[in-house]
Design goal:
There is one protein chain. It is built from 24 helices and 42 strands. The strands form eleven sheets. Strands 27, 28, 29, 32, 36, 37, 39, 40, 41 and 42 form a ten-stranded mixed beta sheet that branches. A hairpin with a 2-residue loop joins strand 41 (827-834) and strand 42. The chain is globular, with a radius of gyration of 29 Å. 52% of the residues are buried.
Length: 865
């Protein structure tokens, strides 16, 4: 008999050390019942109770959330497997990373080892069902005496992350309970369900910026190397009841097709098993593509059989009644809500409850366990076979290497790429001597990334230029559009020079050494009196802002200078290394790991003191992810700010309290009215009326007065529409009406065929302008094709300058764009003046998902304008 068995709660079974409590007896309600939710600590508490009572479960802490909660994996398997987890972990690593395993050892591993399945639950915290189902799954697995399930547990180790987002889980549960029993029960949380990024936590698995993302990604990048991964989500309420793979086109071309075949097998078995259990509305080949890295499924580029499931949502824990006439589908895979090959058993409508979601989650989870158990040896063999195939492909076919020269415009971003690749489990090397490859000379210390590595698909995906695979619904017909973005190239997004090498040079492979801890910085002489941090590096801005936050004086060069024979760009930062502040400054500088310029003696430098402005960052209540990303970037770069809500602007006394007001990418109607707009009508969505508030007329008057009196406004994306059209200062007869000399022409361009679904495009920058200090003459920026600006000759006390424009041709750098030439010679970034005030308007997101470091300096310079 495997593990511990229990038939009746409260009754001990042979081998148990204590009573195994049922979820209902622990929580005081049955998980999934109407109106009931448990929080994160209670859920972990229950799993700890099971761990005390059963040897089929073990908890392991794997990290902390952005707000300091511990994150856990709960391992479920037969007691013998749980007892030898360290040994099985070692085997997982070898199968994943060792292409040269002797055949005899491989065969022994295939016969003796187990399939590890990583299941991550409810990363999007309003999608409560998967986490609420976790205790029921756990209880079943530690108490079952079902012979089939015991066999699964003998063959499989389930690694459950019971909440992918502990902070958001508690936010949502607390909000639901606050309004439970009122008319606003089930209303939406008025904020992002995360410290920073909300729903975009499932866009972070490439750049690994968030602590919870790092903890989860490390499971398949560095530690446990599971063979299978499933992330469990929810979607809207009025479509299909449940999505399982296969996904829809487009798919990632660098990922082996066999990965998708395996995920399809798991999905087909889920559809069969769920249909057999009477669960209707299960769909496949629908809506969700498998093209872009950034979700938890980034593991598929690392030879993991990865996929997602999506359940229809209730109103959090409150039931919702759905009329049959309200059921609908649209987009990829299903055009009508009818029986078809992609949905064999349509759900007919009626009440939909959290309990239904929980049931679907339990059945689908058991199906995944069964499939993994039935194909245990094949899955283990597949993992090591892929490891061998990837390494062999890197040895026998191009590209063979990516080489990143040590000399870069922004060396800090080179450091960032190397660090990030290492965190992803990629080996990075450095040249030990100079080399010429494909007529390009490389120097000692340049970084080399060979593609003969197990994670070859990932290396190629993130280092190359993206070319969107155009697929159509019919020959020559409508394009199948991407689910998310189409560009993520690390070198391009960070403006780091990288060379793809398509010739194998075995001699080069003998002249490289693996990179461990490293720094590009030479030791700063103890006799140096000052240090200059080049404005070309984001890290210099970070150190300057950090110094200011510690009360250390920082100066900024007013123009280009030559120091020690080296040209130093204007806008670079100067820190004194003398006195107590100098000691702290030296520590900040050494932590940068980038080249800096020491200054000896009393050389006079043309500088002005750097002053940090008082910043107001406007963030709506409506899951404002772009504002959340901005907060993350500001916190990371030590930029202080005050978060204000749009409805607070009218009473904020902006001119007295702030120097700069920032509007990230957000809908104008949400900012102005606190409501969505459909046609000519406003509606507040699923939010409590207390938060359905915008700036209104009073707030806009306060903002424009702030601008006219010398304040500065920074705006990008949709929020730039606030400043288009007729604006007013004052009221009554003395009111001044004016129009700023710009217009967003992107609606006209889109009607003419422009389509940019999130791509990297080229801009050309105005030289020697305060907004472009430290920037190259051209760079790539993240754009969705809106806004695009035109300007006009200003009147009265206004002025304008085009800071950045799109070139006439060859605009697209990475991703996809249709009719890109429509953007040619149009404005991408503007400086505007009104009265004593200034506006900086971006036609792109300068800090998009904290992944476009090549344009960060444009935002930082705007803050210091």
């Amino acid at each position: 008999m495997i593990g511990l068995l229990l038939v009746i709660p409260g009754l001990l079974v042979e081998g148990q050390s204590a009573e195994v409590k049922s979820p209902e007896s622990y929580f005081g309600f049955h998980p999934g019942s109407d109106g009931n939710l448990f929080g994160y600590d209670d859920m972990i508490g229950y799993l700890r109770e099971l761990e005390k009572s059963s040897d089929r479960i073990r908890l392991e802490e794997i990290g902390t959330s952005p707000m300091g909660k511990n994150i856990y994996i709960a391992f479920f398997s037969g007691s013998g497997n749980i007892a030898k987890l360290p040994e099985l972990k070692k085997i997982n690593r070898e199968l994943a990373l060792e292409p040269e395993l002797p055949d005899e050892q491989r065969e022994r591993y295939f016969k003796e080892s187990k399939v590890f399945i990583l299941v991550t639950l409810s990363m999007h915290s309003t999608e409560v069902g998967p986490s609420q189902a976790a205790p029921l799954v756990a209880y079943d697995l530690v108490t079952t005496r079902d012979a089939k399930k015991l066999q699964w547990l003998n063959n499989v180790v389930l690694m459950m992350v019971p909440s992918h987002n502990p902070d958001g889980m508690d936010m949502v549960v607390e909000h639901y309970n606050k309004y439970k029993g009122t008319e606003y029960e089930g209303s939406s949380l008025p904020d992002v369900y995360h410290k920073y990024v909300g729903h975009d936590n499932n866009r972070d698995f490439l750049i690994l910026s968030q602590e919870d993302t790092k903890a989860i990604a490390a499971i398949y990048n560095k530690t446990w190397f599971p063979q299978v991964m499933v992330e469990k989500h929810q979607m809207g309420s009025t479509g299909v009841r449940y999505f399982v793979p296969p996904n829809h086109d487009p798919i990632a071309e660098n990922v082996p097709g066999s990965i998708f075949a395996w995920s399809g097998l798991f999905g087909q078995n889920m559809a069969k098993d769920m249909g057999g259990a009477g669960l209707k509305g299960v769909a496949q080949h629908y809506l969700f593509d498998d093209y872009w890295p950034g979700s938890t499924e980034t593991c598929i580029w690392k030879n993991v059989i990865g996929f997602l499931t999506e359940a229809a949502s209730a109103r959090t824990a409150s039931p919702v009644y759905i009329e049959p006439t309200e059921l609908s589908v649209g987009g990829k895979g299903l055009s009508e809500y009818k029986k078809g090959i992609n949905m064999l058993h349509p759900w007919e409508g009626g009440w939909w409850r959290l309990g239904d979601i929980v049931e679907y989650e339990i059945v689908s989870t058991m199906s995944v366990l069964k499939t993994a158990s039935n194909h245990r040896e094949d899955i283990l063999r597949f993992r090591n076979d892929l490891c061998r195939e990837m390494v062999e492909a890197g040895r026998t076919g191009p590209p063979y290497y990516y080489i990143l020269p040590r000399e870069q415009h922004d060396p800090g971003e080179l450091v960032g790429i190397v660090d990030l690749l290492q965190e992803h489990g990629i080996d990075v090397y450095q040249l030990e001597k100079g080399f010429v490859v494909e007529d390009i000379s490389y120097n000692p210390g340049d970084f080399v990334i060979p593609l003969a590595q197990p994670f070859r698909a990932f290396i190629k995906e993130v280092m190359e230029v993206q070319e969107f695979p155009e697929r159509h619904f019919t020959p020559g017909g409508e394009l199948i559009k991407p689910y998310d973005i189409t560009s993520w190239s690390l070198p391009l997004h960070r403006n780091v020079k990288s060379f793809e090498v398509n010739t194998r040079v075995e001699e080069l492979e003998q002249q490289i050494s693996i990179v461990g801890d490293f720094s590009l910085q030479s030791p700063v002489p103890g006799t140096a009196s000052r240090i200059v941090l080049p404005a070309s590096s984001n890290a210099s801005f970070q150190a300057a802002f950090a110094a200011l936050s510690k009360g250390i004086n920082v100066d900024r060069l007013t123009g280009k200078v030559e120091i020690n024979g080296e040209q130093v760009p204007g806008g670079s930062f100067v820190l004194s290394l003398e006195g107590e502040d100098g000691t702290v400054a030296r520590q900040l500088v050494e932590a940068l790991r980038i080249p800096v310029i020491p200054v000896q003696g009393d050389i006079e430098l043309p500088v002005i003191p750097l002053k940090m402005p008082r910043i107001a960052l406007v963030e709506t209540y409506f899951h404002d992810m772009d504002a959340g990303w901005t907060r993350y970037v500001f916190d990371t770069y030590h930029i202080p700010f005050t978060k204000i809500r749009p409805h607070e602007i009218g009473d904020a006394k902006l001119s007295k309290n702030y120097d700069v007001v920032i509007f990230p990418d957000e809908n104008k109607d949400l900012l102005m009215e606190g409501k969505y707009k459909r046609g000519e009508n406003y509606y507040q969505g699923n939010y409590h009326p207390d938060v359905a508030k915008g700036m209104g007329k009073e707030g806009m008057q306060e903002l424009i007065a702030f601008l006219d009196q010398g304040g500065q406004v920074i705006s990008w994306g949709q929020s730039t529409a606030l400043f288009e059209g007729t604006l007013k200062i004052g009221e009554g007869e003395d009111a001044e009406a004016f129009m700023l000399p710009f217009k967003d022409i992107s609606p006209e361009l889109q009607k003419a065929g422009l389509y940019v679904p999130g791509s990297l495009v080229k801009i050309e920058l105005k030289k020697d302008h305060p907004l472009t200090l430290g920037m190259p003459a051209e760079t790539g920026v993240f754009s969705r094709g809106r806004p695009v600006f035109s300007t006009s000759i200003p009147g009265f006390d206004m002025d304008r300058r085009v800071i950045a424009s799109f070139p006439e041709k060859e605009i697209l750098l990475s991703g996809y764009a249709a009719e890109e030439e429509k953007m040619g010679n149009k404005s991408a970034m503007l400086w505007l003046k009104k009265g004593e005030g200034q506006l900086v308007l971006f036609g792109f997101n300068p800090q998009f998902r904290a992944s476009t470091q090549g344009s960060f300096k444009l935002l930082f310079n705007a803050l210091l304008l």
